[in-house]
């Protein structure tokens, strides 16, 4: 009897081990990886070669700095490769607008201050609150999941409980 073929590495992860990511988020990670592999790693290797020519390796701080940069770049390359193996892209056509879900853009009103904010619900690898992107795993992201327009959510923050009302959901 024939043995079943082993699953490719990326299929070995169980669904709950996968981390959700938007198409744009995956493209950004792939672009960073490409930049590191094609440009930055080559540049630092050239810097190391030049530093070797100039003087003693042991006392050359330029050489030491270049080696540290090389280690950092290699670590980030490995990290990005691992991330890209475990992410699951949620296509734009699967982003809900009738309730908050992964990829949704949510307009909220802070009920204490009246201040309005807009967030896109994304994965942890692309979250950046300063750009209006919060992770579905963050306290606010978790509280918002599956909520509808008009729903109120409460989120515990260092300053206390903050209440938000969902005003609009879009893609």
Q: Please state roughly what percent of the residues sit in beta strands, choosing from under 5%, 5-15%, 15-25%, 25-35%, 35-45% or over 45%.
A: 15-25%
Radius of gyration from the CA trace? 22 Å
Oligomeric status: single chain
**Major sheet details:** 5 strands, mixed
Strand and helix layout:
Blueprint: E1 19-22, H1 23-54, H2 61-86, E2 87-90, E3 105-110, E4 116-122, E5 133-135, H3 139-144, E6 152-157, E7 160-170
Parallel strand pairs: 1-2, 4-5
Antiparallel strand pairs: 3-4, 3-7, 6-7
Describe this structure in words.
- By secondary structure, this protein is of the alpha/beta class.
- The chain folds into two domains: 15-90, Helix Hairpins; 92-170, Chitinase A, domain 3.
- The chain is built from three helices and seven strands; from the N terminus they run E-H-H-E-E-E-E-H-E-E.
- The strands form two sheets. A five-stranded mixed β-sheet has the order 5-4-3-7-6. Strands 1-2 form a two-stranded parallel ribbon.
- Helix 1 (23-54) runs antiparallel to helix 2 (61-86).
- The protein is elongated and about 65 Å long.
- The chain starts with 18 loop residues before the first strand and ends with a strand.
- The model is unreliable at 7-13 (pLDDT under 50).
């Amino acid at each position: 009897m024939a043995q079943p073929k082993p699953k490719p590495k990326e299929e070995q992860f169980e669904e709950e081990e996968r981390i959700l990511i938007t198409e744009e988020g995956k493209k950004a990670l792939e672009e960073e990886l490409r930049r590191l592999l094609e440009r930055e790693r080559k540049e630092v290797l050239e810097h190391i070669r030049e530093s070797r020519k100039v003087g003693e390796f042991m006392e050359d701080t330029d050489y030491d700095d270049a080696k540290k940069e090389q280690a950092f770049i290699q670590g980030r390359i490995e990290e990005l490769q691992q991330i890209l193996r475990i992410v699951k892209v949620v296509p734009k056509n699967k982003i809900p607008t009738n309730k908050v879900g992964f990829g949704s853009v949510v307009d909220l009103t802070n009920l204490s201050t009246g201040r309005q904010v807009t967030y896109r619900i994304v994965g942890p690898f692309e979250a950046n609150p300063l750009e209006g992107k919060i992770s579905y795993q963050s306290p606010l992201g978790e509280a918002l999941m599956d909520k509808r327009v008009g729903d109120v959510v409460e989120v515990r923050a260092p300053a206390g409980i903050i209440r938000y009302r969902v005003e609009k959901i879009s893609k």
